[in-house]
Amino acid sequence: MTADETVTVTFVNPRQLGAIQLTKTEKHAAATGGVQPHAGVAFTIAGQAVVTDANGQACVGGLQFGSYDVIETVPAGYVADGATTKSVEVNQAGTCAAGFETVSFSNTPLTNITVSVDSQIDGGTASTITCDDEDPVETGANGDGSTTLSDLEPGTYTCTVVIDP
């Protein structure tokens, strides 16, 4: 540079970027307190697919400020304990190491119930099984039969078995 010379200088102010960390838990009867981290669950954040780690966490960084939908793919054998899509506002600078926004999801495992009858003498008894609002199931000619209720959320279920000679 010399005296009286004009120099053009360009300054770039990089955008601040943020991050979203999600935490995924599952209810589990054998876990301390009845809840534990849920690993291996798929989510989508800002078009990016992520899967929860052993601590039930996943993170997406490098997000511009704004609102993002965090979408869970509920694993087979579970029911969501609330919305499977949650909106998160990214409005502070952060990374997946610090300063991130947070969101949590939880699921409850489902259960199948099978009720069966087995006549000890083929055809000696006939039975009818009725569970809650399901259609009654009648045993076949040998007196044996069963019914299964699938994908049940925790609750009380009532089945009635009538055995008739």
Short account of what is shown:
This protein is mainly β and 165 residues long.
Mean pLDDT: 94
> Which word captures the global form?
rod-shaped
CATH topology of the largest domain: Immunoglobulin-like
The tally of beta strands, per DSSP, is 14
Give the SSE string. EEEEEEEEEEEEEE
Domain module tally? 2
* CATH class designation of the largest domain: Mainly Beta
Structure description:
- The chain has 165 residues and is mainly β.
- It has two domains: 17-109, Immunoglobulins (Immunoglobulin-like, Sandwich), CATH 2.60.40; 111-164.
- Helix content is 0%, strand content 51%.
- Strands 1, 2, 5, 7 and 9 form a five-stranded mixed beta sheet that branches. A four-stranded antiparallel beta sheet has the order 4-3-6-8, with no helix packed on it.
Can you give keywords for this protein?
single chain; 165 residues; mainly beta; Immunoglobulin-like; five-stranded mixed sheet; four-stranded antiparallel sheet; 14 strands; 0% helix; 51% strand
SSE blueprint and pairings:
Elements: E1 17-27, E2 35-37, E3 42-45, E4 48-51, E5 57-64, E6 66-72, E7 78-80, E8 85-90, E9 101-109, E10 111-117, E11 126-131, E12 137-138, E13 145-152, E14 159-164
Parallel strand pairs: 1-9
Antiparallel strand pairs: 1-2, 1-5, 3-4, 3-6, 6-8, 7-9, 10-13, 11-12, 11-14
